[in-house]
Structures are given as C-alpha cells and as structure tokens.
C-alpha cells in the first residue's frame, strides 16, 4: 500500500529523471564497449556520461533510497569532476594525439578542495552537528561555497572548451575535407547545448536561494531534467548516425600563417597551383570523403607544407572550401545530366564525396545560392 502511494506521489520530474539516467547509463555502456580508434576519447565520454547520470539521479534518488548526509554531499561533489572530464573529452576529440599525463591531475583540485571543505562538519561531524545542518541545509556555508565554486568552475571549463575549439577550427578547415570537419561541428554543438543546460541549472539555483523558491524552483527542475533528457537522446542519435564523428587532428599540425612565418620563400608557387588544379580535375581525389591535405600532398608527391600554403594562402581558401568546390561542380553536372534523371540527390551527394546531407546542402547553397532540388528544377 505504501509502495503504491509512493509511486502515485512521483511527479513528472522523477519519471523524466529516471528515464534520462537510464538512457545515459545505457549509452555509457555502449560507448565503453564499442571498438574505436580513439579509445581515450570514448573512455572520457563514457566517464562524462556516468558522472552526468549521477547528477541526474539526484532528481529522484531520495524518493527511493535513504542516504546519510555525508554520502549525499559526497555524491554532490562528483559534479566537480563533470566539466573537467568534458573539457578533456573535447581536447581528445579535437587532437587525435592527445594523451592523459600527470599534468592533467591538477583538474582534480576542485574536487579535492570541495571535499576538504565538507570534511569537518559533513563527513566528520557528530550526529548532533549533522542534524543541525539538516535543519537549514541550503544556507550552510559549505553548500553556498559548493554552489558558487561549481558555477565558477563550469564557466571556466566551458570557456576553455570554446578556446580549444576556436584553435582547432582553422586547423580542421585548413587541413581536412567534409568527413573530419563534421567532428568540429559536433563538438561545437554539444558544447553550446551543455552551456544552455548549465544556464538552466544556474537559474534553478538562483530560484533555490530566492524568495520565490516555491513558485519557480520546482518548475526549473522539470525544465532542467527535460533538457538533459533531450540532449542525451540527441547525441545518441547523432553518434549512431555518424559513427565516424570521433576523429581528431594532430595537435602538432600548424596553421598556414605559422607555416608562412617559417617559410623562407613566401612568393606564390604558381607551378604547384597549376599542377594541383590539373590533378583535381583528372584524378578526382575529392571523391574520398576523408580526404586531408596530407593525403592529397602524398598523392601529388609534394610536402603538406607547400600544399597548405598554396591552397590556404595563395588561393586564399580553406582546404575544406577548396575541395567542396570540386564536389559541388561535379554534383551540378550530375543534377543536370539528362541521361541520369532518376539519380537522387542522396545518391549524388555520396557519389561526389560528401557523407552528410546537411553538409552537402549547406555547401551547395553557399556555392549556387540554391538548394540541389531548386537547381535541378531550374536547369532541366
């Protein structure tokens, strides 16, 4: 009878929290078990998902489990690990040669300090002391410190993640074509989504300490847990539909401006550019979705440095845009080929070297100001 009453009392926040936690843990198990080239990246993402599920479990765990105050606080301090692991995950995906080293142990410092702050009264305090803390828990100096420090830490790591992405962006676009560039877009989206979730959590905690707590705090919890569920479902679908997302670039790869500073001959190399255009038209290396500037340089038997300067500096184009121009030109020919009227847009985009419908449509519209379907209708 009591169990039935307890289930009837569960609100939407609890049900959604259970669902989000279950899906997150299930996806974490999948990430840990799947075989991938970048094992470290998968492990960090799996660890991030597990820590995230621990946080999400806080929305319903008290309805089912009675836990001591010290265990409750230790569970809460696990959040100190969430954003550092997320930041390291971003680094590991951006740079394929990223490795965990002893210097990365300093990321544990907030977690250690947070637990040291809790030790005197929450971990080692007598029963009477802990009961006194429970009477006005959210206004204890330890909990206030925890909330402020966690929010400051989150801002720091999200900013650092964006900085890493901004640095990696030009390297991605200067050295890779469509396939690997999708990694950057995936990372950027997931960082923005988690910043949005952090913002909701910040608003929730403002309500928690304000006079309108009863009116808005519960609603903000529901919004937050729904947001976590939605983003979890989103990156599950994203990862399953794009299994090649987790490819990084070598962190030693240099930007063109850095190569130019090292180069003694800064004059335009017309011979390389002319040979490049002939090679692109005759050999069609752009049909490879994973084409990189190193691959192309190897095929042309020249140095990646010379090729990078020729494309990114002399032609004033990112390698990404340079390759996509050839793909789009070929797609335009196929779309207007009257001998192949039954060839679908999806078939064409794969035939010319794209592996994503969205990236194909974006590149095509950038080049022609029309969608592929509109272009076909106007030219047939």
UniProtKB/TrEMBL annotation:
Keywords: DNA-binding, Membrane, Transcription, Transcription regulation, Transmembrane, Transmembrane helix. The chain crosses the membrane at residues 12-32, 44-65, 77-98, 105-124, 144-165, 186-203, 215-237. SUPFAM superfamilies: Homeodomain-like. The keyword Membrane applies. InterPro entries: Homeodomain-like_sf, HTH_AraC, HTH_AraC-typ_CS. The keyword Cytoplasm does not apply. Residues 270-378 form the HTH araC/xylS-type domain. This is HTH araC/xylS-type domain-containing protein. It comes from Tenacibaculum platacis.
């Amino acid at each position: 009878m009591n169990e039935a009453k307890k289930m009837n009392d569960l609100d939407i926040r609890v049900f959604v929290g259970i669902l989000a936690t279950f899906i997150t843990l299930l996806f974490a198990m999948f990430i840990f078990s799947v075989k991938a080239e970048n094992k470290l990246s998968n492990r960090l993402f799996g660890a991030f998902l597990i820590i995230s599920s621990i946080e999400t479990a806080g929305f319903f765990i008290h309805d089912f489990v009675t836990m001591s105050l010290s265990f409750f606080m230790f569970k809460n301090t696990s959040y100190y690990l969430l954003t550092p692991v997320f930041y390291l995950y971003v680094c590991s995906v951006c740079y394929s040669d990223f490795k965990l080293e002893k210097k990365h142990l300093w990321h544990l410092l907030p977690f250690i300090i947070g637990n040291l702050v809790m030790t005197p009264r929450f971990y080692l305090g007598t029963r009477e002391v802990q009961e006194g803390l429970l009477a006005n828990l959210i206004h204890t100096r330890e909990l206030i410190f925890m909330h402020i420090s966690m929010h400051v830490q989150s801002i720091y790591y999200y900013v650092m993640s964006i900085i890493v992405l901004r640095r990696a962006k030009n390297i991605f676009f200067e050295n890779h074509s469509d396939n690997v560039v999708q990694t950057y877009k995936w990372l950027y989206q997931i960082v923005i989504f988690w910043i949005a979730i952090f913002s909701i959590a910040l608003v929730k905690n403002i309500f928690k300490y304000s006079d309108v707590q009863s009116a808005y705090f519960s609603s903000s919890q529901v919004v937050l847990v729904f947001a976590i569920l939605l983003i979890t479902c989103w990156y599950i679908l994203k990862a399953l539909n794009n299994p090649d997302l987790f490819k990084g670039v070598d962190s030693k790869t240099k930007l063109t401006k850095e190569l130019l500073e090292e180069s003694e001959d800064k004059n335009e190399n017309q011979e390389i550019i002319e040979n490049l255009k002939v090679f692109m038209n005759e050999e069609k290396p752009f049909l490879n979705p994973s084409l990189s500037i190193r691959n192309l340089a190897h095929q042309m038997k020249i140095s990646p440095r010379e090729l990078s300067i020729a494309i990114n500096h002399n032609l004033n184009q990112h390698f990404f845009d340079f390759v996509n121009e050839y793909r789009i030109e070929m797609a335009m020919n196929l779309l207007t080929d009257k001998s192949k009227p039954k060839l679908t847009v999806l078939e064409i985009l794969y035939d010319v070297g794209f592996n994503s419908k969205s990236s194909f449509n974006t590149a095509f519209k950038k080049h022609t100001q029309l969608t592929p379907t509109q272009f076909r209708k106007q030219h047939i």
